[in-house]
Amino acid sequence: MDNLLPWSQLLEVIEPFYPKVGNGRRPYPLETMFRIHCMQQWYSLANKIPC
Hints:
The chain has helices spanning 7-14, 30-42. By secondary structure, it is mostly helical. It has one domain (7-47).
């Protein structure tokens, strides 16, 4: 995966929209969540909502 995508550039675009640490549970690291999301999409593991 590291050779396929420019992770640092993609994370810079997403970071302003990702939750910040505040009052409550700390969010998972952005890079971790983004990589999980990409793998779910690539391998069709995303949750599908039945219609």
